[in-house]
Known about the structure:
By secondary structure, the protein is mostly helical. It has helices spanning 8-23, 29-60.
Amino acid sequence: MKAKRPSFRAELERLEAIVRSLEDEDVDLDEALALFEEGVKRLKSARELLRGSELEVKRVLEAADGTIDTAGLDD
Length: 75
């Protein structure tokens, strides 16, 4: 059974917590490296979730004639 993937919001919240932890002067090097590695993985996951959402928005905006209105999506 496949584990449920975290939501974009959950990924961002965890990333914020990681940043706060890394800013703490009491974090040791091993913990900092582990947090950094987790942060990189969560950032990649959040980007993938965002990319998937952008594709879904483009599909919703698809016109009946097959063209896609992407105005404002590339900003």
